[in-house]
Write a structure and sequence with these properties.
alpha/beta, 16 helices, five-stranded mixed β-sheet, Phosphatidylinositol Transfer Protein Sec14p, 459 residues, Helicase, Ruva Protein, domain 3
Length: 459
């Protein structure tokens, strides 16, 4: 019988694989071929590869031609690459770019702090960045808030010796930040000129313009209230408003108007602005002030929001203590120039607490922060927030301007960027650090004494 011609359309690279079998990717070791892989190249070129695991069924009509020119390529094994451990990278300071390079005011012997200058006014985070390099802020853009899951310093690290302050050293720190600093240092003068356009001649010129505006607007309904409140104030009191608005007199006057309006509109808050009225909230650390500044010289105001008991401390009481404390902190000229940062931890924050927040309460806080108080707020840091923290931000977002929203930094459990502002050895464990716990009493004692020294228990 005449044999049929081989079908030239059949596979010429080797035996047909078994139907439904999974092809082995090129370069991947195949246990079924390990014997053939040991055949020398010359011998392999003259013999058909032996297949033992999946033999090709015998074909009588169209036999597969023997292949001699395309030997099975030698497959070498690719061992699993050795995995080495990579310790967490050392965190170095990457401060906000609108701040000049300065020495860390908290630097102590045995603690090295590196401060570098960048071009972005805020710390950047790759998770908050877009491809073109512009920083993306989920608060500012109204997007859901990410919750990073990276651990804080370990328990073992907390046993490392860190700098601590004695009670007297803490009181001395609070005494300094609550009192006028008098003559500005040369470094502070240069910072004020660079960031606020402040010089001796500018201060004199703009103060005269502001006084004139207070007089000219006295015959209007709104102007009368502003002139009545500020007309008798000393220049050094008005200076905190001029510095906040970088000596733009029109914007300064608008802030003074908002300042008066806020106190008239929210008397449930302003009626409590006495030391005895806010003492209970301060004893509960709502808010507290760390006994060290951050790497740029900002005073650090802290809130343990997760421990807030709405039944023991109302929102108005908490906001009144915040405002009272700020009013006393801006007595210090350095604080007027450098500004503040706020750090909130939401550890143990329960969903029932979030559900009790009212939009009207949040609006009070936002109104104060973005136009009704003469303070430079350089950053608001939120850590360890649960997913339902977005409920609170959803209430706040309609009232916030982009400038305020852009300064809210949501860290979750990943605190690497926070450490670019504040070293972990200066943060209590509650706030993601390895430092000592916060004690509110030295601040309260020094606040009381500074008020007595100025001869006033109220604002």
């Amino acid at each position: 019988m005449k044999m049929s011609e081989p079908d030239t359309r059949t596979n010429t690279t080797g035996p047909n694989p078994k139907e439904n079998s999974i092809p082995v990717p090129e370069g991947t070791p195949n246990p079924a071929k390990q014997e053939d892989d040991t055949i020398p190249t010359e011998e392999a070129s003259n013999r058909k590869p032996e297949v033992t695991s999946n033999p090709t069924p015998e074909v009588t009509s169209n036999p597969t031609p023997e292949v001699t020119s395309n030997p099975t390529p030698e497959v070498t094994s690719n061992p699993t690459p050795e995995v080495t451990t990579h310790p967490s990278p050392e965190v170095t300071s990457n401060p906000p770019p609108d701040e000049q390079q300065i020495e860390d005011p908290n630097n102590q012997p045995g603690t090295e702090t590196t401060v570098t200058e960048t071009t972005d006014p805020r710390p950047t985070d790759s998770s908050n960045s877009v491809p073109n390099g512009e920083e993306y802020n989920p608060i500012e853009n109204g997007q859901p808030l990410p919750v990073e899951n990276e651990p804080s310093p370990t328990a073992l690290q907390r046993h490392i010796s860190v700098p601590t302050k004695s009670l007297e050293e803490k009181r001395e720190f609070y005494r300094e930040i609550l009192s006028p600093c008098g003559e500005l240092s040369q470094a502070l003068k240069e910072k004020a000129e660079l960031e606020l356009n402040e010089t001796d001649s500018v201060r004199s010129e703009k103060m005269l313009e502001l006084r004139k505006m207070l007089t000219d607007e006295d015959d209007t309904e709104k102007g009368d209230a502003v002139s009545e409140y500020f007309g008798g104030k000393e220049d050094k009191y008005l200076m905190r408003f001029l510095r906040t608005k970088k000596f733009d007199v029109k914007k300064t006057y608008d802030m003074m108007e908002a300042y008066v309006k806020f106190r008239s509109k929210y008397q449930s808050i302003t009626d409590q602005l006495t030391f005895n009225g806010v003492r209970h909230a301060l004893e509960e650390s709502f808010p507290g002030v760390l006994p060290v500044k951050d790497k740029q010289g900002h005073v650090v105001i802290i809130y343990d929001t997760g421990s807030w008991d709405h039944d023991k401390l109302s929102f108005d009481e908490m906001l009144a203590s915040f405002l009272f404390l700020l009013e006393n902190l801006v007595e210090n000229e350095e604080n007027q120039i450098r500004g503040f940062v706020v750090l909130e931890t939401y550890e143990d924050y329960h969903i029932t607490q979030a559900m009790r927040m009212k939009a009207s309460d949040i609006k009070k806080l936002v109104d104060m922060l973005q136009g009704a108080f003469p303070g430079r707020f350089k950053g608001f840091h939120v850590i360890r927030q649960p997913w339902y923290f977005s409920m609170v931000m959803a209430l706040a977002r309609p009232f916030m301007r982009n400038k305020l929203a852009s300064r809210i930094f949501v860290h979750g459990n990943n605190l690497k960027k926070l450490y670019e502002w504040i070293s972990p050895e200066h943060l209590p464990e509650k706030y993601g650090g390895i430092g000592e716990d916060y004690d509110p009493q030295p601040l309260i004692d020094e606040l009381r004494d500074s008020l007595l020294q100025r001869g006033a228990q109220t604002l």
